[in-house]
Amino acid sequence: MIQVENLQKHFTIHHLDKTLRAIQGISFSVEKGQFLGIVGKSGSGKSTILKSIYGTYRPQSGAIYYESESFGNINLAEATDQEIIHLRKYEIGYVSQFLSVMPRTSAFELVEQSALETGKSPEEAITEAKETLSDFDIDESLWNNYPNYFSGGEKLRLNIARAVVKKPRLLLLDEPTASLDDASKLKVREAIEKLKLQGTTLIGIFHDLEFMEGLCDEVFTMQKGVVNS
Length: 229
Fold this sequence. Notes:
Layout: E1 2-13, E2 18-30, E3 35-40, H1 46-54, E4 61-68, E5 72-75, H2 81-90, E6 92-96, H3 107-117, H4 122-135, H5 152-164, E7 170-174, H6 182-197, E8 201-205, H7 209-212, E9 218-223, E10 226-228
Parallel strand pairs: 3-8, 3-9, 6-7, 7-8
Antiparallel strand pairs: 1-2, 1-4, 4-5, 9-10
Helix pairs in contact: 3-4, 3-5, 4-5, 5-6
């Protein structure tokens, strides 16, 4: 599904005339329906990998080959902006620990809008929003509420629901259990297990090693911008 080859990314701090190396020589592959977990200390380069795959960052060198339904085997590191936008809309999802939404937009409307973005009819979008919110254990009494009033676990599951309603082939998870209590972590774990059963390919960043136990097919450890497998 995805193959990363010798990926390198650095950032230039112009006012300090300094270059910071984020990742160097990163290589790995993930088969369809598999889950790769990435662990490591803060600042080790974990999020840079995900953001390079998602197209938020452009790496200085290396390749990210993705088996796309729309474009075939495409190198995401060299994809055009239009190709990246299309893939985000139809094939690749991204979930972070933060929920950034428009004010006065209900949880149901957020998931419905995500479904509409993929070209679903209004009727289809409503049906899929209901099914997805239920699948991720967001109580129906919350559907018409604003997410600002949700608990941390509810916000994360809503974030996942927004991504999953698009039925992505590849889902990137950036610290989806950060600052959650044990009960909320369990709900997120159950949501991820459902995605695996549906055949979604996943790459996730975690600090909580206990959470990952038995969930990932392979785990990489990041240290100072490189992978120790």
